[in-house]
Amino acid sequence: MSSSATSVATESEIRSPQTPGPVLLMGAPGVGKGTQAKELVKYWGVPQVSTGDLLRSNVAQGTALGKAAKEIMQRGQLVPDSLVNDMVEARLKQPDTKRGYILDGFPRTLAQATWLDERLGGVQSALPLVAVSLQVDYNQLLRRITGRRNCPVCQTIYNIYSNPPKRDGFCDVEGAALVQRADDTERVFAARMTAYNAQTAPVVDHYRNLGRFVEVSADGPIAAIAAGIVAAVERLRS
Ligand code: AMP
What we know:
The chain has helices spanning about 35-45, 50-60, 65-75, 80-90, 110-120, 140-145, 185-210, 220-235, and strands spanning about 20-25, 50, 100-105, 130-135, 150, 155-160, 215. It is of the alpha/beta class. The protein has a domain at about 10-135 and about 220-235: Rossmann fold (3-Layer(aba) Sandwich), CATH 3.40.50. The strands form two sheets. A five-stranded parallel beta sheet has the order 2-3-1-4-7, with helices on both faces. A hairpin with a 6-residue loop joins strand 5 (about 150) and strand 6. Helix 1 (about 35-45) crosses helix 8 and helix 4 runs parallel beside helix 5. The longest helix is centred in the C-terminal third of the chain and has 25 residues, at about 185-210. The radius of gyration is 17 Å and the shape is globular. The mean pLDDT is about 90. The site of adenosine monophosphate has 17 residues, from helix 2 and helix 3.
């Protein structure tokens, strides 16, 4: 199983000496969790743990997990909890998560949330999890999803409407041809929203009820949203 798909900051990029602990980014598909996670990775110097990226990496490598997950992901449905929990367990055991990590796309069901709460409860020294719920309206989500393009080499995320590359279809950094995720179509977006409303919205309520929870508007410039998340997390930690 590979973790190469998740972002890790290089030393020169690290801007804050603070230890953020586990930070959970929640929100509907297309809200910008991946984009914001990458900003927070640069700011705090902790890794992004994206279950979507980890699963896509398994699919690309043809692992047993990838084979089990591929068609479920193409339909916009959720991969079974036990498979995802095992994958997260392996990732969180890696030493780069000691100061904290940015959870992106996990937990997505109440069963995953319960599993994570129990796991975190068993780590004495760990800071408690802080949950950030990102919010934008439905039409923007649709534009963000159908306009999203990724660089297959450096993973930079573009949007053909709001954040286009300088040269149409090619990455500014790598010059590589940009790709669109197979599940970023309008039809699969509808299925992903259905899964979100049925299975993931209750997870937002779960963390709201536990406290250490904040809602942040994800509408506006990327850096301004990231600054809002950092300020909210640091407020909850103080
Ligand atoms: P994402 O990149 O977070 O939008 O995830 C893409 C797809 O991967 C989802 O539509 C699901 O099929 C699958 N997936 C990602 N994270 C999870 C999770 N925590 N639980 C179940 N399935 C997941």
